[in-house]
């Protein structure tokens, strides 16, 4: 079925466009915010259509020429074809709509901290095709698009992509189809490569060829990690502090915006607090936000090891880091530790209901919630409201320009 002459009024987090047709909302692949177009419905669901754009009738006033030659094929970016100011406006809408829908909170405007549009990612993950070439997934597909550059990556990564591809091509030539994926991480001066392999027969060859590489190279074979050259971690500088981040530890991808995010979180938290950091990772957030007096909980044992080293390195005197599932935190532990405030930065799925109930039992007054998902943040704010808390402050942070992803920090508090 074709529907003609519809206006694109919003963009979803996965990059699809949104339009209202006479009967239902349509989610449309390939359409641009602000344009008027015709669409073809590929799938009719009970409450919405899934569709693709067939023809532009009137160009979007926000349109610009995407600076990346791979943009129309590559699944990495979704809104590079509209100007940056409009990108920010769309992210504001995303957060405001989620808060209104889930938590019935209406806010007129929300500040979004802005940064550099390009060259911000300290980490990119690429697929390796059957010829050893580096690629991203295509838009809405598992097919691959070979790339020679990525404008989102930091300069150090971009400058080294060709040399890195030489390595993956060389290994693949010797052992066809033996590599799956490569994660490239960079700090100010070093590169760490984590290569996911499909066949362990290649390990001796890689060891022999690349043991003296100038890159820090590590292999991941199922769950096993094999160090080939250099280290299996990088040291990052953040707000004048130093952090060891191992190859499988979480680390925010945009150094510059992370500093802005943590400064805001520090401001929301206030001074002289003993903090419980749930989902603490290697403790970058808690150590950056609170200078001392930290208890951290994290499921990844290696990240906890790094958190302890990071606490020592940054001269904390009062700290405790525990490898444990944060869902099973109990209120007696929080009271025993004399915690004043909680900092949380859970995965995209947000918080288990039980954590919110446990926190409420302690009557802790301040919760600083860092999130990369407006939907789960809004849902959790609603659950906090049901347990006696209110949303006091919220700010967005544009960590991921050219995509519809956005980071947020919220202060949730009670009297
Ligand atoms: C978004 S990251 C935040 C990490 C850290 N706060 C930081 O900024 O570097 C989420 C962290 O939650 C951890 N995690 C996931 N599920 C968990 C669970 N059930 N209990 C504890 N930690 C968990 C992950 O390993 C990851 O380190």
From TrEMBL:
<feature type="binding site">
    <location>
        <position position="252"/>
    </location>
    <ligand>
        <name>S-adenosyl-L-methionine</name>
    </ligand>
</feature>
<dbReference type="InterPro" id="IPR010280">
    <property type="entry name" value="U5_MeTrfase_fam"/>
</dbReference>
<feature type="binding site">
    <location>
        <position position="345"/>
    </location>
    <ligand>
        <name>S-adenosyl-L-methionine</name>
    </ligand>
</feature>
<feature type="active site">
    <location>
        <position position="372"/>
    </location>
</feature>
<feature type="binding site">
    <location>
        <position position="279"/>
    </location>
    <ligand>
        <name>S-adenosyl-L-methionine</name>
    </ligand>
</feature>
<dbReference type="InterPro" id="IPR029063">
    <property type="entry name" value="SAM-dependent_MTases_sf"/>
</dbReference>
<feature type="active site" description="Nucleophile">
    <location>
        <position position="372"/>
    </location>
</feature>
<keyword id="KW-0808">Transferase</keyword>
<feature type="binding site">
    <location>
        <position position="298"/>
    </location>
    <ligand>
        <name>S-adenosyl-L-methionine</name>
    </ligand>
</feature>
<keyword id="KW-0949">S-adenosyl-L-methionine</keyword>
<comment type="similarity">
    <text>Belongs to the class I-like SAM-binding methyltransferase superfamily. RNA M5U methyltransferase family.</text>
</comment>
<dbReference type="InterPro" id="IPR012340">
    <property type="entry name" value="NA-bd_OB-fold"/>
</dbReference>
<protein>
    <submittedName>
        <fullName>23S rRNA (Uracil(1939)-C(5))-methyltransferase RlmD</fullName>
        <ecNumber>2.1.1.190</ecNumber>
    </submittedName>
</protein>
<dbReference type="Pfam" id="PF05958">
    <property type="entry name" value="tRNA_U5-meth_tr"/>
</dbReference>
<keyword id="KW-0489">Methyltransferase</keyword>
<dbReference type="GO" id="GO:0070475">
    <property type="term" value="P:rRNA base methylation"/>
</dbReference>
<dbReference type="InterPro" id="IPR002792">
    <property type="entry name" value="TRAM_dom"/>
</dbReference>
<dbReference type="InterPro" id="IPR030390">
    <property type="entry name" value="MeTrfase_TrmA_AS"/>
</dbReference>
<dbReference type="GO" id="GO:0070041">
    <property type="term" value="F:rRNA (uridine-C5-)-methyltransferase activity"/>
</dbReference>
<feature type="domain" description="TRAM">
    <location>
        <begin position="1"/>
        <end position="55"/>
    </location>
</feature>
